[in-house]
Each structure stands twice: as structure tokens, then as C-alpha cells.
């Protein structure tokens, strides 16, 4: 896990808006993302920065984060302000699928996946801090992240797992027997069993060297790509073992302090047994805070909550 190869940047594509937090690729190799001003964008021809073109698909009226393309061409969107949405890329229609759970307004919805039977699972990163104060939750280590389930045809989601440390990216296993959930605040991937004798239970899928963010599965037989949004911070590990009052005070200070992400970035690819297939890193990167990664054609595409564009990188060599 501690051995890595070089993440090779090729070029950068400006989007004219900040914060393409999640990136997903469609069957044509186009990349979709949501940005800070509420727009959903589709980027064409990312492989060539001179011909790359940005198309506006919709405006959510909130802050889109995690995305999931559906077989019928629709797009699921986790909006940090409005809840779980469905967007029609053809006409820009935005429909709210769920904006509350058990009488509590949904905020900070983070990432979403849809299963073949139409069931939707999505994460809520924090019940205490909004997106603009995300660092407070990481520092306080609240453990208020959730995994939610929305049954086909339902408008009322149910909480299937609580107590997650900043629940974030989601990806299904190839056989549909479990979900992988990124717990950013715990630097781990957690497995939530969907079938079998452990259905409804969780266990450890993988410990990670850095803080995971969004996940993306490269097709039914491909690996799960893991974006690494931030490095391990040993003083933070110590703080997480401190009394709750100490962590709360530190979090109040953190949300008001200037923040600038570091210049070491990385991504992982793992298989369905949690084995690392690729670990790519780059030091002194001009592109900071990688919060998502997907493959599009012959390239890796990186998204970032921090940057006003996406980075296009070389795919790793086989093996």
C-alpha cells in the first residue's frame, strides 16, 4: 500500500466555475460534473484541451456533489442543499426525489448509486456541519455520517447505517452483493452487505493511506477508483482520541481558519477483494485536493472541490 507510481498529468481543462467535486463518464467518454454555482456540466473531447467543449445540462438551484448516470439516460444528483435529485439531461428538468428522512431535512447529501432493481443508496456526510464547514466534521470526528436507501417508487428514504465517519463515495460490487462506502474521516473503505447472512451489516473493506472521497466503478468488471482528497495527518489522529469537548473546540476554530490543500495528490484502484491494483501519486502538483476520479477513453480525469477545472492524466500501465 505504501508503494506508489507516478500520476502523470497531461493537461488541464478549465470549466469557468469552481468545484467540479465529482466526475463521472458516460458511454461516449463525455464527463459530467456539478459545480459550485449549481450547474450540471458535460465536457466533450477531454482528450484534447484545444477542442474540449463544456455544455450546460441543468441548474439544480443548490450545490451538486455526487452524480450517478442511469440506464435510461437520467442523472441522479446528491445536492448538498436540496437533497437527492433526478436531472433529465435532455431538457434540464430537475426533480426532487427526497429532501428529508424521518422528519429531518436532508443536507450534505454526498454520493449516490443506483442498483439494477431501481433501489438507490446515498450518503449523508454529516448531520452537524454543512458543506461549507466540512472541515469541522473532519476535525471533530462526529461520526454522524449516514447511508440511506430509497426504494423504487418511494419518496421517503430510510436510514440503513449510522455512525459513519464522514460518509462519502459509494460503489457497488461487481456481483451486487455489497456496497463500498468511503469514510473520509476514518481513512477507510467500509463494506455494507446487501445479500447473504451478513445483509445489513458492515465490515472493513480496506484501510487507506489517505482520506478517501468519491468512488467510481470502471464498468461491471473494472476496478473501483478511489480519489484521495487529503493525506494522513498524525496530529489529527491524536485529536480524534481527545475528549469530545476538546474536539468540538478545535472544530470551531478550524471552520474559521484559512484553508489551502496540500500539493501531494493521489488516487487508488482496488478490486472487489479490497486489493490495491494501482496507487498513483504526484508531489508538487498544481492541481490540488482530488475529490473524484474516473476513466474516460484513454485517460484518467480528476475532479476537485477546490479547483475551477478538471485534470486529465495518463492511465496507468497494466500491472
UniProtKB/TrEMBL annotation:
InterPro entries: 6-blade_b-propeller_TolB-like (IPR011042), Strictosidine_synth_cons-reg (IPR018119)
Keywords: Glycoprotein, Phosphoprotein
SUPFAM superfamilies according to UniProt: Calcium-dependent phosphotriesterase (SSF63829)
Domain Strictosidine synthase conserved region: 116-196
Pfam families: SSL_N, Str_synth
Gene3D superfamilies associated with the record: TolB, C-terminal domain
Sequence similarity: Belongs to the strictosidine synthase family.
UniProt-recorded name of the protein: SMP-30/gluconolactonase/LRE family protein
Amino acid at each position: 500500500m505504501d508503494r506508489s507510481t507516478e500520476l502523470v498529468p497531461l493537461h488541464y481543462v478549465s470549466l469557468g466555475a469552481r468545484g467540479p467535486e465529482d466526475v463521472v463518464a458516460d458511454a461516449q467518454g463525455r464527463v459530467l460534473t456539478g459545480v459550485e454555482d449549481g450547474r450540471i456540466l458535460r465536457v466533450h473531447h477531454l482528450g484534447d484541451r484545444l477542442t474540449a467543449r463544456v455544455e450546460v445540462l441543468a441548474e439544480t438551484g443548490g450545490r451538486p456533489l455526487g452524480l450517478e448516470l442511469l440506464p435510461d439516460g437520467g442523472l441522479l444528483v446528491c445536492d448538498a442543499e436540496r437533497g437527492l435529485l433526478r436531472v433529465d439531461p435532455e431538457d434540464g428538468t430537475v426533480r426532487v426525489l427526497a429532501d428529508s428522512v424521518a422528519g429531518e431535512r436532508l443536507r450534505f447529501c454526498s454520493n449516490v448509486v443506483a442498483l439494477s432493481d431501481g433501489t438507490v443508496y446515498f450518503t449523508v456526510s454529516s448531520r452537524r456541519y454543512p458543506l461549507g464547514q466540512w472541515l469541522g466534521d473532519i476535525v471533530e470526528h462526529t461520526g454522524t455520517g449516514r447511508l440511506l436507501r430509497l426504494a423504487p417508487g418511494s419518496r421517503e428514504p430510510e436510514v440503513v447505517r449510522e455512525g459513519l465517519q464522514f460518509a462519502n463515495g459509494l460503489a457497488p460490487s461487481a456481483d451486487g452483493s455489497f456496497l463500498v462506502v468511503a469514510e473520509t474521516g476514518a481513512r477507510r473503505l467500509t463494506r455494507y452487505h446487501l445479500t447473504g447472512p451478513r445483509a445489513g451489516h458492515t465490515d472493513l473493506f480496506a484501510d487507506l493511506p489517505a482520506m478517501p472521497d468519491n468512488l467510481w466503478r470502471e464498468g461491471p468488471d473494472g476496478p473501483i477508483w478511489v480519489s484521495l482528497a487529503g493525506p494522513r495527518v498524525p496530529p489529527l489522529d491524536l485529536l480524534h482520541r481527545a475528549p469530545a469537548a476538546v474536539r468540538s473546540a478545535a472544530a470551531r476554530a478550524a471552520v474559521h481558519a484559512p484553508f489551502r490543500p496540500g500539493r501531494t495528490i493521489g488516487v487508488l484502484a482496488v478490486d472487489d477483494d479490497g486489493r490495491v491494483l494501482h496507487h498513483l501519486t504526484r508531489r508538487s502538483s498544481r492541481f490540488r485536493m482530488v475529490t473524484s476520479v474516473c476513466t474516460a477513453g484513454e485517460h484518467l480525469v480528476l475532479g476537485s472541490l477546490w479547483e475551477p477545472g478538471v485534470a486529465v492524466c495518463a492511465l496507468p500501465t497494466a500491472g
